[in-house]
Specification:
497 residues; FAD/NAD(P)-binding domain; Polyamine Oxidase, Chain A, domain 2; 15 helices
Length: 497
């Protein structure tokens, strides 16, 4: 059967690694603790409603991007997949006024100028920077020394195009989005920009997200997170790969400094190589005995902070297709989640997406960003966990009813996912929902393989800033290239297998 490879986790990184490993001729089995693929890129159903819990847009949805080829290679995209480009991408409302984040840069600039004429200088400066950032992209490169069927490299034109953006990146990286928006007089524009990726996150994320949209990228895939993951799993299995669900890897077997397989339910399962796509911050502590103590692992322990969310979902027995698909607004009543208190709420409205709700109904989701892990952990220990989730849902529904009167008395179902939910299903560090750059963060990257243990490889969004789906697929590809180099195998990344 050839070289036997075990992959830990059927998230996007694990599925991508699985596809590339099978295309390159390895005998591959993925072990996944959950009952479905996708990892953090997930959705779930409640009483006929589908709640999107992961992807809100996909970088690389545009055929013009280098990432697009990767998404097609791993089966996330094909000619049959419909892509929805939401426009406006985001709507912000406050005190009866509205500001929108449009995909056309000139339209966006004019709209901002009309909304906040006193901020002309800052608006023009931001739009100039956004134009520069549209030239930035995540290059797809081959690692040094690997044999490949078809080479991937960065075109010189792309490198030169990125230079102006690189000169401006430092300005945004050294501040939070809230600190950046302090330059604007208009509370409307401040609120809109802060709601793009979160007020307390690195302003680079805000700027690059807008640039992604302006460049014609950042579409939402038909079927969302679960649909994408399911297509990738189907591609992997069609290539002869196997996924074992409900199987939790507890340890990586290491003998004389070489990974020899994994342990599941106390049973050793042999392999010639192991690719770990579980949250790397957890893996370095829990999957190795003793824990990994290499310099990069210590750096990850010291610098990693959890990106947490408490996720609220409701099913509404009303058609809300005439309302914005993504709406952020300032509520009259604060929403409290432990020590986190906010009056600014963002809701996603899936009325225009087929299959998300029964006919004439609407699925709505909202998230409270911030570290609420200790609060929910204490609730669990005190036995008040379910009661606190219900209390949170009731306040949210009350706010929603007031903001959107069509929802009053029409709530068919609600659900709340906390950091403990993500910890349970993802085995992520402190229930991390994703990885993202904070204020002052550098473009960190961590190695795909440790120095002290051979035949083990890492992939996943923790390995490179700013994380997310692009990093997951790219690191899955990179892990297999390292495997190919170490085994003298030709790496094959090709559409259709």
């Amino acid at each position: 059967m050839g070289v036997k490879v075990i992959i830990v986790g059927a998230g996007i990184a694990g599925l991508a690694a699985g596809v590339y490993a099978r295309q390159s001729g390895f005998d591959v089995t993925i072990y996944e603790s959950h009952t479905i693929p996708g990892g953090a890129s997930t959705s779930w159903r409640r009483q006929g409603y589908l709640f999107e819990g992961g992807m809100h847009w996909l970088t690389g949805s545009s055929p013009k991007t280098p990432l697009h080829k990767l998404w097609r290679e791993v089966g996330a995209l094909d000619d049959s997949v419909q892509i929805h480009y939401r426009d406006p991408f985001l709507t912000f409302e406050q005190d009866g006024h509205r500001a929108c984040l449009y995909r056309d840069l000139e339209k966006l600039r004019q709209h901002f100028l009309e909304s906040a004429p006193d901020d002309r200088a800052e608006i023009n400066r931001l739009c100039r920077d956004i134009k520069k950032f549209t030239k930035m992209g995540m290059p797809v490169m081959d690692i040094r020394g690997v044999k490949v069927k078809q080479k991937s490299s960065i075109p010189l034109s792309m490198l030169f195009g990125m230079l102006p953006a690189l000169f401006r990146m430092g300005f945004y990286a050294k501040q939070t989005t809230r600190e950046f928006t302090g330059r604007f007089k208009s509370p409307l524009l401040r609120g809109l920009l802060e709601s793009v990726v979160g007020a307390e996150n690195n302003a680079t994320g805000m700027a690059f997200t807008i640039a992604t949209l302006v460049s014609g990228d950042g579409g939402y895939l038909e079927g969302g997170s679960l649909g994408m993951a399911s297509r990738m799993a189907k591609r992997f299995e069609a290539l002869g790969g196997r996924i074992q669900y409900g199987k939790t890897v507890s340890k990586i077997r290491v003998e004389n400094g070489v990974a020899t397989g994994v342990i599941i339910d106390g049973e050793p399962i042999p392999a010639d190589a192991v690719i770990i796509t579980q949250d790397t911050r957890v893996a370095i502590d829990q999957l190795f005995d003793p824990p990994l103590r290499e310099p990069w692992a210590e750096k990850m322990r010291a610098h990693t902070k959890p990106m947490l969310i408490t996720f609220i979902c409701v099913g509404v027995e009303a058609d809300l297709s005439d309302l914005p698909e993504s709406l952020t607004f300032v509520a009259d009543e604060p929403l409290r989640c432990g020590d986190l208190v906010t009056s600014t709420l963002s809701i996603y409205n899936y009325a225009n997406y087929k299959g998300y709700a029964p006919e004439g109904c609407t699925a709505i989701t909202s998230g409270i960003l911030g570290d609420s892990y200790d609060f929910w952990k204490a609730c669990k220990e005190k036995g008040t966990y379910e009661a606190e989730k219900q209390k949170l849902a009731e306040v949210f529904i009350r706010i929603l009813n007031k903001k959107i009167p069509q929802t009053a008395g029409k709530i068919a179902v609600w659900d709340v996912a906390t950091p403990l939910t993500y910890e349970r299903y993802l085995h992520s560090w402190r229930g991390s929902w994703m990885s993202i750059m904070e204020k002052g963060s550098k473009m960190e990257s961590y190695p795909s393989k440790p120095e002290s243990i051979k035949k083990v490889y890492f992939a996943g969004q923790r390995l490179m800033s700013p994380g997310g789906l692009p990093v997951a697929v790219e690191t899955g590809r990179k892990a297999v290239q390292y495997l190919c180099r170490d085994t003298g195998t030709v790496f094959q990344g090709k559409i259709g297998g």
